[in-house]
C-alpha cells in the first residue's frame, strides 16, 4: 500500500468518524435473520395485486423493483416483458435482492415493440416519393413496388436513422444499401474501391447510378484497422466523394478500402431490407408476402435493467432481446448469471462527425454490450450474441467475466470486442468467444479514481473466428504504451482467425501487445492459423519493456526498430515455434533463451488435430528455464518448453458447461 493510499484511507476514516460524532445516525446494520419475501410477476398479473403468490402476480418486473427490500426475490414466470427495470433500492452483501426466472420459465426482457398497420406501397406512392427524391422512380425500389414486395407503416422511430433496428420474426433486418450485404452481419458482401480512388474519393466501375444519386448518402468504409462512417458530398456514375477522407489513414486505398452506401430508398429491393424516412415518420419493408403473417418489431429501449445506482443485486436466468443491462460507477456486488442476450447493442454511425482517429476506432468500446462498471461485479454462465459493439464491457475495477459463450459481436468492426476490458484488476476467464469483427478480448488500461490499481487476469479463454472485419488485430489485443502491472495473459487457446476482407493481412495473431505495452506476463498460450504467430510484440512508440513471454506454442513476431533500450527487461523464454523479427528486438535489450529452434521438430502428439502435447521423444522435454508458477507440473526433472508440460494433465480453455 502506497503512502498516498494510506493517507486517503485515513482521511476517509476520520471524515466518517466526524459525521457520527456530530450526531448524524450511522447506517443501520441489516437484520440478517430476516426471511426475505418472494414476489411474483406474470403476463396475466396486475400491478395492483399483492404479488406474493404466482396465481395473482404483478404484471411488470418494475413493480417488484419498486417494492423489494434487501433479501427479497422477484420470481418471473414465462413471458415477454417490454420495460426498463430501474430498482428503487439495492440489496446488501448479506441480503442481496434477486430477480430470477421461475423454474423452467422462458422469460424475455425485450427492448422492442411490435409494429402493425402495414399496407402495400403503390405506384402512386412512388410518384409522391419521387417529388422529394426523383431517383426513386425507375429504381430497384420502384420495380419491387410493382412486384408487390414493398409495404409501409406510419411509426415514429426517432430522427437518427443510424440507431433504427428492425426485426422480422426475431431476426435483424438491414437498412437498404449497396451492395446488398446479406443478413449475416459478420459475413457481409464486400465491395472495394477501384483504381483511381484517392483521398476522399471512391472510384468504382460498379457504381452505375446516375450523377447525384448518392448525394447525401451515408458511407461505411473499412481499411486496415479502421472502420468509419461519413457522408457522400457528391457523386457521379463511377465514383462518390465523401465529405472527408476516412480518419486515421486519411485516404481511400484502391483495392483495399471496402465500402457500403445507404440512406437511399431506391436500394430497397432485397429480403430483410428496410428504409426509414424520419421526416415522414414512415417505415418501409421489403417482404415477399404480407407483413401480417410475420412478427415485425423495432427497437425502442436501450436498457432492460438500469442498475447504474444499484448494488448487491442478482439477475438470473433471463433472456434479453434488443436490449441490455448496465451497472454504474458505484455499483458493487451485482451478479448477472445465466443471461441469454441477443442484439445487445446497435448503431451504424461509427464516426458521429468526429475527425480524430481515437473517437472513431473506439466507438462502442465503453458503452455497449452488458456494461459492467463499478467494483466486484460479475457476468457468469451467460450466452451473448449479436451486438454492433461488445458482448461485455468490463469497466471499473475487480469485475469478472467467466464461463460465458459470446459470438457474432462487433459487427461494425471497431475496437469493441467479445469482452472489452477497461479499468484494471479485471478477471476474464473460461469464456468461449467466436465470430467477432475485430478482437475476442480488447485489453486496455485505465486507473479508477480512489482505488489502488492492480493487474488483470486473462486466462483459459477459447477464442476463434476473429479479425472478420478489421486487421492489425488479435484474438487478445492490448494497446498502447501502458505499464500493465504484471497483468497475465495465460492458458488461452487462440485459433482460426477468419478475415472476410481481401485487404492486407498484417497483424493477425493470437496475443498482440501493440505500440509499447510493458510489464505483461504472456505465457502458456496455444495458437494456430495466426499469420504472425501466437504472440506479437510491437515495441514502437515508447518501447516495450519488462515483458515475460514464456512457454507459448505457435511462434511469434517481434516488431521493433533498431533502437537502444527499446525492449529493455523483456524476456522470451521456453517457447515453441518460429520467432520472427529478432534483429531489431535484440538490439533494444530483449533477452531470448531456451526457445526451441524453428528447424527442430517438437514432436507433438498430433499437431494436425491441434494436440500440442509432447511425445516421449520430444526435444522440448527437460529443456526449459524453470519459472515457478508458470511451467510447474512436468514429470521430468526439468520443465518442458511450450504450453504443455510433459506428463501433466492437459489444461483446457473455454466455457465450462
How would you describe what is shown here?
- With 657 residues, this protein is mostly beta strands.
- The protein has a domain of 175 residues.
- It has 6 helices and 53 strands.
- The strands form 8 sheets. The protein has a 14-stranded parallel sheet, covered by helices on one side.
- Strand 19 and strand 20 form a beta hairpin.
- The chain starts with a helix and ends in a 43-residue tail after the last strand.
- The N terminus is likely disordered.
Major sheet details: 14 strands, parallel
Going by helix content, strand content and strand pairing, the class is mainly beta
Strand content: 25-35%
Mean pLDDT: 93
Count of alpha/pi helices? 6
Which word captures the global form? globular
In what order do the strands lie side by side in the largest sheet?
1-2-4-23-26-29-32-35-38-41-44-47-49-51
List keywords for this structure.
single chain, 657 residues, mainly beta, 14-stranded parallel sheet, 10-stranded parallel sheet, 6 helices, 53 strands, globular, disordered N terminus
Amino acid at each position: 500500500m502506497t503512502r498516498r493510499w494510506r493517507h486517503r484511507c485515513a482521511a476517509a476514516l476520520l471524515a466518517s468518524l466526524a459525521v457520527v460524532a456530530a450526531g448524524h445516525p450511522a447506517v443501520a446494520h441489516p437484520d440478517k435473520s430476516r426471511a426475505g419475501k418472494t414476489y411474483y410477476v406474470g403476463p396475466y398479473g396486475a400491478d395492483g395485486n399483492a404479488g406474493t403468490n404466482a396465481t395473482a402476480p404483478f404484471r411488470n418486473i418494475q413493480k417488484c423493483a419498486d417494492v423489494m427490500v434487501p433479501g427479497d426475490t422477484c420470481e418471473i414466470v414465462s413471458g415477454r416483458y417490454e420495460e426498463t427495470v430501474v430498482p428503487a433500492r439495492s440489496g446488501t452483501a448479506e441480503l442481496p435482492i434477486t430477480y430470477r426466472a421461475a423454474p423452467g420459465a422462458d422469460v424475455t426482457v425485450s427492448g422492442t415493440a411490435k409494429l402493425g398497420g402495414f399496407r402495400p406501397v403503390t405506384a402512386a406512392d412512388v410518384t409522391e416519393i419521387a417529388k422529394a427524391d426523383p431517383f426513386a422512380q425507375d429504381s430497384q425500389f420502384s420495380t419491387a413496388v410493382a412486384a408487390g414486395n414493398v409495404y409501409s407503416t406510419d411509426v415514429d422511430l426517432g430522427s437518427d436513422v443510424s440507431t433504427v433496428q428492425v426485426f422480422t420474426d426475431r431476426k435483424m433486418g438491414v437498412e437498404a444499401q449497396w451492395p446488398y450485404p446479406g443478413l449475416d452481419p459478420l459475413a457481409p458482401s464486400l465491395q472495394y474501391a477501384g483504381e483511381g480512388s484517392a483521398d476522399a474519393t471512391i472510384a468504382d466501375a460498379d457504381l452505375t447510378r446516375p450523377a447525384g444519386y448518392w448525394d447525401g448518402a451515408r458511407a461505411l468504409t473499412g481499411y486496415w484497422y479502421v472502420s468509419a462512417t461519413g457522408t457522400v458530398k457528391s457523386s457521379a456514375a463511377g465514383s462518390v466523394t465523401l465529405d472527408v477522407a476516412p480518419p486515421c489513414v486519411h485516404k481511400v486505398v484502391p483495392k483495399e478500402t471496402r465500402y457500403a452506401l445507404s440512406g437511399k430508398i431506391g436500394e430497397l429491393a432485397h429480403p430483410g431490407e428496410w428504409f426509414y424516412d424520419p421526416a415522414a415518420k414512415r417505415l418501409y419493408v421489403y417482404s415477399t408476402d404480407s407483413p401480417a403473417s410475420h412478427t415485425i418489431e423495432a427497437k425502442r429501449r436501450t436498457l432492460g435493467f438500469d442498475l447504474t445506482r444499484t448494488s448487491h443485486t442478482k439477475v438470473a436466468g433471463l433472456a434479453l432481446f434488443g436490449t441490455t443491462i448496465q451497472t454504474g460507477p458505484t455499483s458493487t456486488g451485482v451478479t448477472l448469471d445465466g443471461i441469454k442476450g441477443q442484439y445487445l447493442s446497435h448503431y451504424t454511425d461509427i464516426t458521429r462527425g468526429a475527425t480524430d482517429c481515437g473517437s472513431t476506432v473506439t466507438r462502442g468500446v465503453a458503452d455497449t454490450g452488458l456494461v459492467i462498471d463499478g467494483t466486484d461485479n460479475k457476468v457468469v454462465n451467460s450466452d451473448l450474441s449479436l451486438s454492433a459493439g461488445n458482448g461485455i464491457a468490463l469497466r471499473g475495477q475487480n469485475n469478472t467475466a467467466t464461463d460465458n459463450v459470446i459470438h457474432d459481436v462487433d459487427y461494425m468492426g471497431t475496437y469493441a470486442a467479445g469482452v472489452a476490458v477497461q479499468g484494471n484488476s479485471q478477471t476474464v476467464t473460461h469464456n468461449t468467444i467466436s465470430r467477432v469483427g475485430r478482437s475476442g478480448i480488447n485489453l486496455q488500461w485505465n486507473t479508477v479514481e480512489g482505488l489502488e490499481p492492480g493487474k488483470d487476469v486473462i486466462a483459459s479463454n477459447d477464442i476463434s473466428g476473429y479479425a472478420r472485419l478489421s486487421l492489425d488485430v488479435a484474438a487478445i489485443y492490448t494497446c498502447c504504451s501502458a505499464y500493465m502491472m504484471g497483468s497475465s495473459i495465460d492458458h488461452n487457446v487462440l485459433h482460426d482467425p477468419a478475415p472476410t476482407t481481401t485487404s492486407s493481412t498484417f497483424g493477425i495473431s493470437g496475443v498482440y501487445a501493440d505500440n509499447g505495452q510493458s510489464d505483461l506476463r504472456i505465457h502458456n498460450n496455444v495458437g494456430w492459423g495466426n499469420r504472425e504467430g501466437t504472440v506479437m510484440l510491437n515495441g514502437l512508440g515508447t518501447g516495450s519493456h519488462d515483458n515475460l513471454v514464456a512457454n507459448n506454442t505457435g511462434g511469434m513476431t517481434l516488431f521493433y526498430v533498431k533502437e537502444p533500450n527499446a525492449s529493455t527487461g523483456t524476456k522470451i523464454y521456453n517457447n515453441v515455434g518460429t520467432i520472427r523479427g529478432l534483429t531489431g528486438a535484440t538490439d533494444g535489450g530483449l533477452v531470448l533463451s531456451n526457445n526451441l529452434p524453428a528447424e527442430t521438430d517438437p514432436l507433438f502428439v498430433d499437431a494436425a488435430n491441434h494436440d500440442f502435447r509432447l511425445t516421449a521423444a520430444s526435444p522440448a522435454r527437460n529443456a526449459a528455464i524453470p519459472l515457478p508458477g508458470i511451467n510447474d507440473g512436468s514429470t521430468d526433472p526439468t520443465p518442458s518448453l511450450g504450453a504443455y508440460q510433459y506428463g501433466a494433465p492437459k489444461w483446457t480453455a473455454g466455457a465450462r458447461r
